Amino acid sequence: SYIYNIEGFKNYLICLRDDIMMDDKDPHGYTDRMEARIVFHDRENQGNVRYEFDRSQLIPQELASDEPQCYVFSPLHFQDECYGYEAYSYESPENAGKLYMRWSMAIDDVIMNVLVKSKMKRAIDELEIMYIQDVMTGLFNRRGFEKYARVQFMNARARDSVVCVIGIDMDGLKPINDIYGHHEGDSALRAVGYAIQEAAVSGQIGARIGGDEFEVLFPCQDEEDVKNWVRVFERSLDNYNKKSHKPYEVYASLGYKMGIPGAGDTLESYMRESDDIMYRNKVANKMERNQTLR
Question: Based on the structure, what is the number of domains in the chain?
């Protein structure tokens, strides 16, 4: 409503660079494409609009008139960072007074504050992701798993629905690190992480919670859903081993606990049961394969 303090204006537009919300933009000058984001046409607010147009047009063609018009253009910037420009037209040229200069400075400050807050929010979001994400695999880390899996588990208990927790341990990480180097060990861990993602089902929470330890939680209907998940997971590792041409193969042992959580059940109790089964399977797998690296 403050715009109406500018006496005699007819049209008013705020035209912004089309990359204004991007962090990696070059802040100098105008972009080839501009966006009119605030528009008053014939002194009427056009609401939430987004007119895209070529910079050479100065204003969107939709707002142009066949009648001659005189526009005043004022750059929007903070120091040497360019945001865009304002465009004013007046009912009469003598109405183009000095008040619009103070108005433009206020708009500059508003846009700067919006951009600063937006950058801060993105930075906070990125820090949050870093706090809960395992950088190597793209899965959650232990903090992320405990944060989101706990909610899923409690929801399953409240709704009397079935949930499955799978404990996974990559086999033979230490020999791979010792013989082929830690970069190869990291590659093997990423293969396991990818297999977890490839097997993903709706509502899945997957995480790398330690060096070679992974946990997965997801809602399911019955044990056949879990067995299907395991088949897809193991098939992903088999495909990796066939195509990677590595001097070693990547294997993982797993165990799972599924059921409708009771009043005495916790996420940790399900994790302990699945891990106990996983370790028994790990011993059996080692004996069956009888290979140091597996």
Answer: 2
